[in-house]
Amino acid sequence: MNHELLPVALEALEAARQALPRQSRRVIDTKSSATDPVTAADRALEQAIRATIATHRPTDIFVGEEYGTTGEPSATRWIVDPIDGTVNYSYSIPSYAISIAAEVDGSIDVGLVYDVGHGELFKAVRGQGATCNDVPIRVSQETDLAKALIATGFGYLPQNRRLQARVLGEMIDEIRDIRRFGAAAIDICWTAAGRVDGYFETGLKVWDWAAASLIASEAGATVTTDLPGIGDDPLTVVAGEGLFTTLRSRVSDLYQTLTSEPANDK
Ligand code: IPD
Fold first, then answer.
1. Most CB contacts within 10 A, which of 30, 84, 89, 180?
2. Are residues 215 and 116 in the same domain?
3. Is ligand 1 within 6 A of the CB of residue 154?
4. For a substitution probing ligand 1, which of 160, 208, 209, 225 has the most ligand atoms within 8 Å of its CB?
5. How far is the CA of 154 from the centre of ligand 1 (A)?
6. Are 129 and 151 contained in the same domain?
């Protein structure tokens, strides 16, 4: 795998990995809601990644979950989630990841998702396939929704979580089963590796999916991140070609039906 930005991405990932053991899992702040935590590690890792990338690429745009967007207008944009799965991290549940993507002229060219707890590095360069610890990965070939194991997640806004739970309530007897692992980047990479057959979620931010979406598409998945979801929150769907259309249609229909029903707020 060759791309001039790949060594920079790998060096930034290494800086974040080195910084992680010195951090505390204690939640020090919250963001969009009281259940959306920030730990010191989220901030320290983003700073480590930013500093490393700035050494090589001082004028690139940088979009990070913790410190927002910086940099001059530029063809290259780095999109980073220093810890995807912060709730898992804060509870010592080993499913959280460092996610680094490099986008050039609007197309994501390099994607790294490092699943810290499982020691797995998912990696992709546009046009060159996707790997997990350097072994090529491929999306599931399942085509039957009734036999599909589907991963999903919940956002942090209470009213949206309620609707997301209702979508699952409608789907649960139409599919093999549901998995909620707690880190969207890992969900998408596990879809890429065929460990689940498909994935959907509303309300993801670009740093949740940027790197993983390239890994999934390079592993043969179809990926959409901008379908109508809840209000302004988009719907992301990822699955192999044979399952994608059925999964996307069913989930989209459910969102449209349930969002048009009168609100039943507690
Ligand atoms: C969250 C995780 C979670 C998903 C949420 C994301 P964060 O990211 O990926 O699995 O359900 O939608 O916001 O906050 O841990 O970086």
1. 84
2. no
3. yes
4. 208
5. 8
6. no
pLDDT tens, 208-245?
999 999 999 999 999 999 998 888 899 999 999 999 99
| Domain end point (choices 103, 136, 169) | 136
CB of residue 86 inside a 6 A radius of ligand 1: yes
Å from CA of 87 to ligand 1 middle: 8
ipTM for the predicted complex comes to 0.95
Considering the domain boundaries, does residue 265 fall inside one? no
Using alpha carbons only, what angle is made at residue 105 by residues 100 and 106, rounded to the nearest 5 degrees? Answer: 65
140 burial (CB, 10 Å; 0-12 / 13-18 / 19+) is: buried
Record the pTM. 0.96
Report the distance separating Cα 78 and Cα 63, nearest Å: 6
Tell me, using a 6 A CB cutoff, whether residue 182 lines ligand 1.
yes
Burial 102-137 (b: 16+ CB within 10 A, else e): bbbeeebbbbbbbbbbeebbbbbbbeebbbbeeeeb
